[in-house]
Input
Amino acid sequence: MRAEAAEHADFSSIRYAQCWEDADILLEALQPRPGGVGLSIASGGDNTLALLAHGPARVFAIDLNPAQIACLELKVAAYRELRHAEVLQLVGSTPGNRRRELYRKCRSQLSAGARWFWDGHEHRIDEGIGGVGKFERYFALFRHRVLPLVHRRATVERLLQGGTQAERERFYHEHWDTRRWRAMFKVFFSRAVMGRLGRDPSFFRYLEGSVADRILERTRHALTNLDPAENPYIQWILTGRHSTALPYALRAEHFNSIRTHLDRLEWRCVSAETFLSEIGDDGIDWFNLSDIFEYMSADHFQRLLESLCGRGRRGGRLAYWNTLVPRSRPASLAGMLRPLATLSERLHQTDKTFFYDAFVVEEVA
Output
């Protein structure tokens, strides 16, 4: 079975320099236990590294895009060679002017292909490697060129201070949710603009309805029901760094555990379809599938989901996000996969990566 996304999208550069999926809910969903075996979509690398904190026997990281594999490789090298504070500086979470120096400390740990890739992008390392992806540059354009037309810096800083839910809701309705904010949002986060500047246009092939309206409602949820002071993803979008919160893999308390288990990580530049065709049955305990099902037809999704179930151990869990295209276990696979609907919805309501329509957790029967 061929990878459908590879037939339509461009995979020649980094799309996501960070994982824009909340590792906290991912780990609660999958419940990885020491000694287990996991399959993880590499993407920006962060959530794959987060899985290592739980002492697995093996984690297989896969991605169609060689640039994403290079991104994961550099982060693995950084965990091997740098101190925690230096990793934060290299990523861009904290300010600093030593990023090229820190890259050179990591360079010897990279494969020839990853060295070639990052040597060709060394000028961009000065900005922090967490900002070099197409999606992050899209947010940087929003942050530098669009947001200042809507809100003053002091207003942004006040939003990020958070507060009680009542305080957050009052601030949002009285100061943030202006007519200009809504008008700007509907243009900048439209299907056309997001497809051109943020994601690949082919990723919207199976979408129906308005992109901006759905994301605007989820943004309201994130800025009122959730606390921006505890949300590293909102902080990066609005400021270009992490001010008072970090994603799971970058928190100090997980750093040594991740570093200890780096030798249990294996990465391959390959599609999920190809990887599954090359491994035996009943070998995987948990699957971090990102939002890969968005980019394929319903028929292809069903075939791939069936293949994943065949490679999963009984009781193994799958977790994945729906951005805008609804995907979940079809009735035809009821004998192979059990939806964990209550858990899925509870975690979705706490998802700090707020722009997803749904978070899906399912268990191999």
